[in-house]
Amino acid sequence: MTIIIDHHSDQNDAGDEIGEKNQGITKEEEETELVLDAGFEAPHTNSFGHTFRDYDAESERRRGVEEFYRVNHIGQTVDFVRKMRQEYGKLNRTEMSIWECCELLNEFIDESDPDLDEPQIEHLLQTAEAIRKDYPDEDWLHLTGLIHDLGKVLLHSSFGELPQWAVVGDTYPVGCAFDESIVHHKYFKENQDYDNPSYNTKYGIYTEGCGLDNVLMSWGHDDYMYLVAKENQTTLPSAGLFIIRYHSFYALHKSEAYKYLMNDEDTENMKWLKVFNKYDLYSKSKVRINVEEVKPYYLSLINKYFPAKLKW
Ligand SMILES: [Fe+2]
Ligand SMILES: [Fe+2]
Description:
Blueprint: E1 3-5, H1 18-22, H2 27-36, H3 59-75, H4 78-88, E2 95-96, H5 98-106, E3 108-110, H6 120-134, H7 139-147, H8 221-231, H9 238-246, H10 250-253, H11 264-282, H12 291-305, E4 310-311
Parallel strand pairs: 1-3
Antiparallel strand pairs: 2-4
The chain binds fe (ii) ion (FE2) (2 copies).
């Protein structure tokens, strides 16, 4: 079975990718980041020999992205998020190991990301291996790289085949005002929470410094994988869980919005998320990974941080 998803496209893994592409990292900032990131040599061209984020020539694609966010911004309400967390928090759909989930996701082929023409499992392993090279002692971060996108199984028929807008794309809090830095913010006007006085103030249903753990995030693969990891009693450090849950939260990590909801632990974990995000994008280059060669290492990490079978 092959399911075509737009994963890492602007249209959808908008989270990992659209975010970075659309939220205004300038070329200069990008270069600076690379220089500062000693040891990690980020490729400047992708598999097709173009520079990353070469979207300008593709106005049609842009329209697709915009339409994606229109639907996303209308649909992600407090009620919707609560319903999804309630439903998917039951973890009663299947039981499988982390590696089995990698293989399941690998059946999904990404067609629409101009920076990626490889199967998901290669993206996952490229991210993990790139981190491993620069941070050899942080084995939890290698594993986080491997599993951060596994929540995309929500697109699979056995997981309810959720629409793209409820699986990928940038994420943001619901239950308080939508920050203007969120991509295509204008479409929130059509969100039913937009005019709700309980939900449309700076703090909304939250309090200052309440901690992101207590914040409802728009529903997608990030929050789902976080729930799966937590409920299956992973022993990953809190920074790993933080990366999984917020890796598409671009309003926070690029625009520094919503910082007033963070507590001290979030601030600490944020440092690792910033490290991680560079690899999530730049690992999408043509460094082919020999899956069988690295598999034993990742199986040992899975064994260290997760039970043999997880509920999903
Ligand atoms: Fe992602
Ligand atoms: Fe990713």
